Request: fold
Amino acid sequence: HLWVDGVAQPTVFARMSARAAALGAMNLGQGFPDTAPPPVVAETAQRNIREGVNQYPPGPGRPELRAAIARHQERFYALAWDPGSEVLVTTGATEAIAAAILALVRPGDEVVTLEPFYDSYAATIALAGGVHRTVPFEVRCTDGELSLSVAPHALREAVTDATRLILLNSPHNPTGAVLGREVLEALVEAACAHDAIIVSDEVYEHLTFAASHVPVATLPGARERTITIGSAGKTLSVTGWKIGWVTAVPELVAAVTGVKQWLTFTSGAPFQGAVARGLELPEAQYAAIADDLARRRDLLVDTLRGIGAHVAVPEAGYFVLADLSPLGEDDATALCERLPEEAGVVAIPVAAFCHDDAAGGHASQYRSLVRFAFCKDDATLAEAARRLGAWA
Ligand code: PMP
Ligand code: GLN
Reply:
């Protein structure tokens, strides 16, 4: 037994992006934006490289970035963190998630997440020897409009004394749902009742369209037991820079830092000051990124409705879910394997974000759902629309 089950396979994103490249297909699979980062952010990174900011930065992050992360949390959410002991810079949100899980989950501990879930959650829970329990989104369809939501009671029931962590993700990938206060309150109540720690993946915090994002750490009783995770990849459209961060009380930051030092030791020096600059931008600039994304969302939603799919209009993020069963396509996993050749378009089946039913998951509930990314340039979205129209 050489490796933990499932961990050695390439991720669905790597596999599907490789197929898109090999076939010249429109890549609506992997979620990375085609838009350029704010100019001042790119220029600051270039200047840093020119001026010699190229060696190991301090392990927990460069002081100007830790201070900027703290100021950003204060400005948007009125959360006060001490940059010295309550902020950690990580190599993307991915490292923050892995370090938090590896630091806190002992073999046999339960970790509760929503389902569908971001793929790295299951892999890192498995690497830590944890047991992954999931709370499924309920899918409804009314007059061709899909909607996905989480029932507060389902969350309450999933959390028990065996729960070590609740790994939350709102705004949510892949559903595009923004969890409301009622669900978050149920979650905090359950965490307090069972002494569980909350890890809150908020990488899409600024990419919201109508609903506004509520960080779980702002709820009464949550601050002391919540590790909040952010990412410059999403907030500043620089997914390839791999700069993320953690905010939490000193004991929790120390635990995550302890693991981070053995995973990567430090994170990209020249990018850190650039991200710090990006976190100081006026609110209107984040809103402009979200407005531009909302326009792309509407383009893709129109395309998918136009071919007869049932669509869940997302409240946030990069993705739209579509049910293609009205087109006779009940098996989205099989469809997404064929679609690159048949239509010249790559997308991801929602089942890739689920555990099989036999393994305690809920993949069958999402069997006909496909995730399409709309964070792409106009030419890509237009060509994808043309190809999907011709295919349908
Ligand atoms: N969490 C979620 C929900 C994501 O969608 C992603 C990927 N974009 C990540 C974490 C990883 O973020 P990063 O690229 O900063 O590692
Ligand atoms: N977060 C992106 C997505 O959900 C991709 C990240 C990755 O490739 N691992 O598509």
